[in-house]
UniProtKB/TrEMBL annotation:
InterPro entries documented for this protein: Asp/Glu/hydantoin_racemase, Asp/Glu_race, Asp/Glu_racemase_AS_1, Glu_race
Catalytic activity reported: L-glutamate = D-glutamate
Homology family: Belongs to the aspartate/glutamate racemases family.
Pfam families membership: Asp_Glu_race
Residues that, per the record, bind substrate: D7, S8, Y39, G40, N71, T72, T183, H184
Keywords: Cell shape, Cell wall biogenesis/degradation, Isomerase, Peptidoglycan synthesis
Pathway in which this enzyme or protein is active: Cell wall biogenesis; peptidoglycan biosynthesis
Catalytic site: C70, C182
A Gene Ontology molecular function term of the record: glutamate racemase activity
Protein role: Provides the (R)-glutamate required for cell wall biosynthesis.
Domain of life: Bacteria
Gene: murI
EC annotation from Swiss-Prot or TrEMBL: 5.1.1.3
Listed name of the protein: Glutamate racemase
Length: 266
């Protein structure tokens, strides 16, 4: 049986990348809802319908677990999904808790960057209220990064120009941790690092989500012995075009490069 991964677009590949590192012998289905991306700028009702359609399709593929590799989808639908499906469903949320832990002692600020819909959700506000006892968290929606990623546009000069414009009203020296609260954003980790400097921690929920997936499968005695294969679906249609599959897999190379460069000098 395979593990399903779902995202509005290609952002979930950043979570799949982490999962493969800890679970290399599993087989995966990656479902990108490319017909409806981006979710973060749409209505909650509309997005919920897209999510349920996608998960019903993945359920028909006889998956043993599902990762909602999308902060927006997790924030608005994960509890409803768990009530409707009998396989384990692992969501992802902005890594606010470890960010606060990083910054509390020095009273540095935390910047959470995500989509508008994630930042508006009660689930996110509850998470911040639960851990942010010193009012350290600031938030910023960066929908343009989703568009850059979905267009496979990783031109660093363009990315940095966009970020500088969006961050123009922020004092970047105040921040100790940047939380990448959208799964598309780790593709641009080094652009954030160039703006904020190497002393700033840049984190996401991807690693914790992958570890939680492994923990749940181990508890259920469902760890696989597969080949690490990935089957891609775009909005319910299997991706058979070899060039598109290769394009998807180049995203792992981008992530590997981002991680290798971010460790230089640390």
């Amino acid at each position: 049986m395979k593990i399903g991964f779902f995202d509005s677009g290609i952002g979930g590949m950043t979570v799949l990348y982490e999962a493969i590192k800890v679970l290399p012998y599993e087989d995966y289905i990656f479902y990108a809802d490319t017909l409806h991306v981006p979710y973060g700028e749409k209505s909650k009702i509309e997005v919920k319908e897209y999510i349920f359609n996608a998960v019903e399709f993945l359920a028909s593929q006889n998956i043993k677990a599902l990762v909602i590799a999308c902060n927006t989808a997790t924030s608005i639908a994960v509890e409803n999904l768990r009530r409707n499906f009998d396989f384990p469903i692992i969501g992802i949320e902005p890594a606010v808790k470890p960010a606060i832990k990083n910054c509390e002692e020095e009273r540095k600020r935390v910047l959470v960057v995500a989509t508008h819909l994630t930042l508006k959700e009660e689930k996110f506000h509850h998470l911040v209220k639960e851990v942010d006892h010193h009012d350290l968290v600031d938030c910023l929606a960066l929908p343009g990064l989703v568009e850059f990623a979905e267009n496979f546009d990783f031109n660093e000069d363009k990315i940095i120009k966009y970020l500088k414009n969006e961050l123009s009203s922020f004092d970047l020296k105040q921040y100790g941790t940047i939380v990448l609260g959208c799964t598309h954003f780790p593709f641009f980790k080094n652009s954030f690092e160039k703006l904020f400097g190497k002393k700033v921690d840049i984190i996401s929920g991807s690693v914790g989500t992958a570890k939680q997936l492994k923990k749940i499968l181990a508890e259920r005695n469902q760890l696989g012995k597969g080949s690490g294969s990935i089957t891609f679906f775009n909005s319910g249609h299997k991706v058979d075009d070899h060039e598109i599959v290769l394009k998807y897999k180049t995203l792992f190379e981008i992530l590997l490069d981002e991680n290798q460069r971010s460790h230089v000098g640390h």
